[in-house]
Write a structure and sequence with these properties.
heterodimer; A: mainly alpha; two-stranded antiparallel ribbon; 2 strands; 63% helix; globular; B: mainly alpha; Four Helix Bundle (Hemerythrin (Met), subunit A); 7 helices
Chain lengths: 364, 173
């Protein structure tokens, strides 16, 4: 019994650490988004709170915390309260299988601990897909429980959109799974070690440089579908402010509103982590090994790995903001046609081609 | 410990399954179904069938039930048009199932649980998804293909039903 409690304590510590990293990153993201949007539109962005507006996320948090919590008169109270919590929880638990550092094990208190991944389960990618697919519930329920037509329309749009694009996410991943031969994110990342030509976006064989197994098409489909699944511009029809006020969270205020926004940013972070792990080699550097290893600091190599992982994730996060500053919103029929008639055939063709190249040029 | 978890999952599954048909608001019954799917997935995890658990959530909770909710919210059903005199049928099915359960419980001692022990050892070595893929494309290839064909037919049928003016003045998408 003591071993179980010890294991639980270690797991809780890991979860707490990972949660704080995610929450800090979300806060940073809100700041960066405003700042980068400002620069792209030739503005300054937030400048008032703290030096260069650095304390703006804190000010926002305090403001949202003390705002009045309004529940509309005709709303279904229980569902109205449940929906943001559900969205937030679902956005947070996906991070459990993300390896943000090398796959090392530590012996501590007589058991093995993997410090850089909370749970290395053998179905890691499927777990992420499952979490992503139930993410729609919080949005649909919030839209329905608000008892407002804008919210309901936003919720329904979101349901249709998430179902359509989740399919493309799943199919885009299949090529990577075939190359790696495993569903565990830790092992998929391991399979891409030894230089950028081994990353699945380039797709060189373990002994070669030529990109015979390239997954670049799957990568493009994955990133576009991920943007659609996180309801970001140009796919933000569930919360299209010029048509639906704010979509599914029109009626939400204060902390419940903050939950929805935090969940949206956490989802962006999650798909960025997944894209980095699946296509860009995760924590692997673009050259074989690490620099710290070459200069004789092997025990500190994990710092370099984590820096590379963070860099890749922030590249995707920047891409999200860049898209928001650049592209207008799609019309609804364009969104559906694009998802089913463009993305889906590309993803399916990629599976067939990857299977053929793998059959004729096996990786081992 | 395992027993505690099993009974937790079993009780929640039983209670939510009853709630699905007993609750008046269709949204609540859809949500009870959601909770039930999660606990069934929990049972799969306890049986070391993580792949099935994940697929259960992706397919049932993530796709099918979302569509149910979609329809229920759009239609905004009134409570009284939900059950039209289905009580005789419900009673017949229910009584049959209860008798079956009683008979199975009574017969429990007669068969030895050898099969369960055998499967666990074979799956333990290779990965879960690997084991399923292996049997699906060798031993059960024919049933698998038949199931795919049935799904294809169902898809084409759904499209045919949805597009009433097929061949004629079909609205161009």
């Amino acid at each position: 019994m003591t071993e179980i409690s010890l294991r639980l304590a270690v797991s809780f510590a890991q979860i707490l650490a990972e949660m704080s990293i995610v929450m800090v990153t979300v806060a940073t993201m809100t700041y960066f988004e405003r700042k980068i949007l400002g620069w792209m539109q030739d503005r300054m962005g937030p400048m008032e709170v703290g030096p260069y507006g650095l304390l703006q996320p804190v000010a926002d948090g305090i403001k949202l915390f003390f705002k009045e919590d309004i529940i509309p008169a005709g709303a279904n109270r229980a569902m109205f309260k449940l929906a943001p919590v559900l969205t937030m929880v679902i956005a947070m638990i996906g991070f459990a299988v993300i390896p943000f550092g090398p796959d090392v094990s530590m012996e501590m208190f007589g058991m093995t601990i993997k410090p850089f991944v909370v749970a290395d389960i053998n179905i890691g990618v499927l777990y992420i897909l499952a979490i992503a697919s139930i993410g729609a519930y919080g949005i649909i329920l919030g839209g329905w429980a608000s008892n407002s037509k804008y919210s309901l329309l936003g919720g329904l749009r979101s349901a249709a959109q998430v179902i359509s694009y989740e399919l493309n996410v799943g199919l885009a991943i299949v090529g990577v799974l075939m190359l790696a031969g495993t569903l565990s994110l830790v092992q998929i990342t391991e399979a891409q070690s030894g230089g950028f030509w081994h990353w699945f976006i380039w797709g060189g064989r373990p002994d070669g440089f030529f990109p015979i197994h390239t997954q670049i098409f799957a990568f493009v489909v994955f990133v576009i579908s991920a943007v659609a699944e996180t309801n970001r511009i140009p796919f933000d029809l569930p919360e299209a402010e010029s048509e639906l006020v704010a979509g599914f969270f029109t009626e939400y205020s204060g902390m419940r509103f903050a939950f929805y926004v935090t969940a949206e940013y956490a989802n962006m972070l999650l798909v960025s982590c997944v894209a980095a792990s699946l296509f860009l080699g995760g924590w692997n550097a673009p050259y074989p090994g690490t620099i710290l290893e070459y200069i004789g600091l092997e025990q500190l190599a994990w710092i370099e790995h984590i820096i590379w992982f963070t860099g890749k994730v922030y590249f995707f996060l920047f891409l999200f903001i860049w898209l928001r500053a650049t592209l207008p919103r799609l019309r609804y029929d364009q969104l559906m046609r694009f998802g089913w008639k463009v993305m889906l055939p590309i993803a399916l063709a990629n599976i067939v081609i990857t299977a053929l190249t793998l059959y004729f040029f096996p990786r081992s | 410990m395992e027993q505690v978890f099993f009974f937790y999952f079993a009780i929640v599954i039983a209670v939510t399954a009853v709630l699905v048909v007993a609750v008046r608001n269709p949204i609540y019954s859809a949500l009870s179904l959601l909770i039930m799917f999660f606990h069934v997935a929990g049972l799969y995890v306890m049986l070391h069938a993580e792949f099935l658990a994940a697929v259960q959530i992706i397919v049932y909770a993530g796709a099918i039930l979302v569509l149910y909710l979609f329809v229920v919210m759009l239609l905004n059903l009134r409570q009284d048009d939900r059950y039209h005199r289905q009580w005789p049928m419900v009673a017949a099915v229910g009584v049959t199932l209860v008798i079956e359960a009683i008979v199975l419980t009574a017969m429990k001692g007669w068969t030895s649980p050898v099969v369960a022990a055998g499967t666990e050892t074979t799956v333990g070595g290779v990965g879960n998804a690997e084991a399923i893929g292996d049997v699906l494309y060798t031993t059960y290839l024919f049933p698998f293909e038949v199931a795919s064909l049935i799904l294809l037919v169902a898809m084409i049928g759904a499209i045919l039903v949805a597009k009433k003016h097929i061949g004629g003045d079909a609205p161009q998408l």
